[in-house]
Structure formats: structure tokens, C-alpha cells
Amino acid sequence: MQSLLKKMNGRARSINSRQHDCLRLVRVSTREEFSTLEHEWDVLINSSQTPSPFMSWDYLDVWWQVYGSLGYDVHLYIARDENGKLIGAVPLMVTQRGAFPGARGKFRHLAFMGGVGEMLGESLELPALYGYERSIGKAAAKLILGTLQGKWEVLYFYLVPKQSISTNTMLKELSNAGIAVQTTHSLASPFLNTSNSNWEEYLSKRSKSFRKNVRYGESSATRKYGMKRIQAGKDISYRNGIKQLTRLSSLRWGNDIKAFHTPEFIEFHNKLAPRFGEKNQLSFSFMELDGQIAGGLYDFVFDNKMWGYQAPWDSNFSKASPGFLLNVWSIRECFELGLREFHTLPGNTEYKEGWTDHQHTLNMYEAACPDGLGGALFTIARGIDRLLLK
Prior knowledge:
Helices cover about 40% and strands about 25% of the residues. With about 400 residues, it is an alpha+beta fold. The protein has 2 domains: about 210 residues, Aminopeptidase (3-Layer(aba) Sandwich); about 140 residues, Gcn5-related N-acetyltransferase (GNAT) (Aminopeptidase, 3-Layer(aba) Sandwich).
């Protein structure tokens, strides 16, 4: 009897698998069409393997509004089951030439929406409900090999979770079809598990010097500089808050990073901040020292996690250690809100590892189109780059 049940279950799984492999993708051609998916889309993202604020409906809708007319052609497709339920999506775009500086700008890139140029999100993948990941991956590969054939020269997927089943399935199918996909970089993205403790317990596990720096740093900044916290959307408007964040980013990093350095980037966040704020998906505040705004926090709250996005500060106040204190604010708030994780973006990993206890890996994938002159030229250019690096 047990043997018969196993055979029946195996056949059922095989039938379901074949049904899933026949998924029909339907294109979403306009923002107006995308607007009708708002609730369904976020349910899908929150139910996918690696939910990310950079894949949320608000984020992609604002990105489409600001960047969709700037040489980024959206190719967004969705899939539903036999009952009409949204079960997966393929959020792709093709850049026109010039999206990158230098030689790379000579080529059209196929990427995830929001995954090329100055707006680079984290944990981008093919969102799919549990059980549909491989089917969505196969459908995406079929789309790239068919409908999108001839529209791109370079495949470029940036900051993809290494364990993404849907994306890995797509890349495997593309490789089997002769598109030589390579993992060009693997980046660590540290995070802190905040689900099983509170702020004081977290501090108690840190070194004595760390605890002293936290307590002395805050009391000293309050005593010497009259430190205050200013909330965007309450004490200061979101628009003025973005202006301050832009100013602080310029003071902190200059032209070393692309964040908040172009009108489009600033416009994007002017539109995004109120949306995320209304949905309680944004922690946006400033540190006031000596009556001046000396630092800012711009963190996303999504999937019961906090995502540290920007924390710039004015180096004129370096004696007050604003960078250190801003990290204290973020992580303590993560505990206070009862969130389960605090995520940091890749970069400055050694410093961030000092605040965190885990990390996940994000991969960057690249391939040249095997058909056409553009792909061949890109392959030659990349080969020359590698020789020069050696």
C-alpha cells in the first residue's frame, strides 16, 4: 500500500511539474497596467524566496516612472495559475546604449528592473511562489531566448541572492542553450539576527569597550552637542529631508559613490520616501548636533527586516562619532520595532561584520549574447580587460 501511495504521489508531482513548465507569461506593458497589481504584487514578493524592498511594487513603480523614459525598456511579465492567482513574475529591462560610462556603454544590457545604472537594488531575482521557482526560471529563459532575442548584447544580473532557485534555473537553461553565463563577483552582505533578543542583550554580548563606546558616545554627544533626533515626515518634510540627505552624502563621499548625485536619483527618492513612509516601510531621521543636521539615516523596513540603505554624516562633527551613533540608532530601532533582522548593503564589509553575526552572498552574473556582432565585441573587450588586470 505504501509503495502504491509513493508511486501515486510521484506521478502527481510529475504531472504538477509538467503543468508548471507550461506556464503562460503575460506582458505588463504600462505603468497603468502595473498599478492594478499593487496588492497582488507585494503578496507575491513577500511570499517569494528572498523578499526585498527593491522588488516591492512601490519601488519598481517609482523606478518605472522616473527611469522608464531614460533608455531603460521595461519587459515585465507575470504568470498566474489556473485559478487566476499571481504565482510569479519576470521583471526584466533592456538598457539602450549609453546606460554605463566608458566602453560598457556601447552595449545594450539585459537586466532586472532597477538593476543597472545608478539605481542598483539588492536581492534582485525572479519572484515566484513556493513550488513555482523552477517553472518561472524556465519560462524566463524561454522568453530571453525567444521574444527578447536580438534586443540585447550583454546579460547583466547584479546582486542576485546566490541561493535563488528561480534565477539559478533561468541561468542554467540559458547556459544549456549556449549563453556562457559567468559569475563575475560574489559579495558578502552581512546581517544581524534580532529575533531572539533585545537591545540590552545584544549589548551584553559585545565587548566591554564596545558597550562603553555606545553609552559614553550617546551621553557625550547629548551633553556636548545637544544631540537630538529629527524625524522626516514629522519634524521635517520628506522633500527637505531628501535635500539634507543629498547634502550629507556629498559631504561624506563626494563623487566616490553614485547615491544622491543626479537629478533623477533625487527625484526617485522624493517620490519613494512618502510612499514607503505611508506604509511604515521607511525609517528616515536625522542627527542634530549644535543645532545643525550632522547625520542622516535612510533605512527601509520590509519583510519584518530593516535594510540599512544610507547613513551619511558631516565630517566636521567627527569628534562626536556620528557614523558610529547612527549605526547604534538603526540597530536599536530594529530591536525596538520587533524586527527579525538588520541587513546591510555590500561594501565596507569588515566594518559591518563588527555589528552583525551572519551574512548571505550576492552574486553578479554576466554573459555576452552569442549571436550578433555586439556580443562578440563585448567578449573581446572583456578579454582585453582581464589581460590588463593581470
